[in-house]
Design goal:
Length: 413
């Protein structure tokens, strides 16, 4: 069956084995925060703030680093291909001590680095500039209060240094992504002042030169958050300008734009002017609701653009969703596999033929081919990818998830 499918694709100029090689060499960065509803392990009550919200109370949430790692291992056993871990600073291994955000050190993340090495994972990192008393007034790096700004500058600087240690130890650059929640519920009187302060703080954070072989800096914009409906300091225009000017990577989060705006169309433009791209593949439903990613049109369009632009070598694919209303391991597995299926579909596109038709102005053939491609048996290739990677195919996924729920999650009262 698989060989017949290969021949079918070959007749349209598509090399299936090459597509599978690209799948193997394209890691997806698994966000740790799906496992515990963005709580972290700092010893507080884990209340989420700063415009972020998780809904649902599905039983079995990870309550410790050990449980989170156990759940991640289970999720990874359901994912074909190679992967990375995306860790927020608030998930450090603080050994029961209270370590404030401006005092984090590489030592607090050593056990995560060791675990990643053991699991064969690369690792990415994020300063956590939210859910903290110093973010309660709504501002961090752009705060009018110099003391607050200095606190978050120290946290972000430490995060970059930790990122560099991670990258050096694992032999794979760590993407350190800065997102801050700064914004206002109601109309501001001085947008410019906030943005000037954010720029100055970011400059201070990025002042120390770190090897790009160890650390890659990324910045992430947002349209609005809960409590920052009228004004977000780090808007898309702000960070696009900042990333162009400073040649950092730009993070595009699929949930951080107007509901009808697709990040797919931005990829080709942005990559003309920034060195690298970070994606937070997510699914906003009416707002930045961070629903589990699906095999949907929006995600297919993103992956299509990455492939069509030859952008995979310059793009870091991360995920950003957190749903506590369903089994959290299922959320990781469904969302990551959906992103991977979209990537596979894009890699199996008869790209050369589509391009040729377009160059010749033959838009009829282009449209025909696009529709034909949708009806090709790509799922047979997906099942083969799962089989080669020794992970469950689509029909076997539910059993693995339910078994772990019965044997492990149910015991977490
Ligand atoms: C945990 C957050 O979702 C994450 O840091 C950030 O990327 C974001 O998207 C905030 O809306
Ligand atoms: Mn994000």
């Amino acid at each position: 069956m698989f060989d017949q499918v290969k021949d079918k694709y070959a007749s349209l100029g598509v090399d299936v084995e090459k597509a599978l090689e690209a799948m193997t060499s394209t890691p997806i960065s698994l966000h740790c925060w799906q496992g515990d509803d963005v709580g972290g392990f700092e010893g507080g009550d884990g209340t989420l703030g700063s415009g972020l919200a998780v809904t649902g109370n599905y039983p079995g949430k990870a309550r410790s680093i050990d449980e989170l790692r156990q759940d991640l291992e289970q999720a990874l056993s359901l994912l074909p291909g190679s992967h990375r871990l995306n860790l927020h600073a608030m998930y450090g291994d603080f050994g029961g001590k209270s370590v404030d955000r401006d005092a984090i050190e590489p030592a607090h993340f050593q056990s995560w680095i060791d675990w990643c090495r053991q699991q064969g994972l690369g690792m990415d990192f994020n300063p956590s500039c939210f859910s903290h008393p110093n973010a309660d007034a709504g501002f961090t790096l752009s705060s009018p209060d110099q003391g607050i700004r200095d606190f978050w500058i120290a946290h972000c600087r430490a995060s970059r240094q930790i990122g560099a240690v991670i990258g050096e130890q694992l032999g794979s650059p760590c993407v350190t992504n800065i997102w801050v929640p700064d914004g206002m519920k109601d109309l501001p009187a001085d947008r410019l002042g906030f943005r000037q302060r954010l720029e100055a703080s970011l400059d201070a954070v990025l002042e120390e030169k770190l090897s790009p072989a160890h650390n890659i800096d990324a910045v992430e914009s947002k349209l609005f958050g809960i409590g920052s409906e009228s004004f977000v300091v780090g808007s898309h225009e702000f960070y696009m300008g900042y990333a162009f000017k400073n040649q950092t990577a730009l993070c595009l989060d699929a949930g951080h734009f107007h509901p009808t705006e697709s990040i797919a169309d931005k990829i080709s433009s942005v990559l003309m002017f920034v060195p690298e791209l970070l994606l937070h593949v997510s699914r906003g439903v009416r707002w930045d609701s961070d629903h589990v990613v699906l095999f949907d049109d929006a995600t297919q369009a993103i992956m299509q653009e990455l492939v069509r632009c030859d952008a995979l070598p310059r793009t870091h694919i991360g995920l950003d969703f957190f749903d506590a209303s369903i089994n959290r391991i299922a959320a990781w597995a469904i969302g990551t596999r959906a992103a991977q299926k979209c990537l596979l579909l894009a890699l199996l596109e008869p790209r050369e033929k589509l391009r040729q038709a377009e160059l010749e102005g033959d838009y009829t053939s282009r449209l025909l081919l696009l529709e034909t491609a949708k009806a090709l048996p790509w799922s047979v290739v997906w099942e083969e990818f799962c089989r080669r990677n020794n992970v469950p195919g689509e029909l076997a996924l539910a059993d693995s998830i339910r078994q772990y729920e019965r044997t492990v999650l149910a015991g977490r009262a």
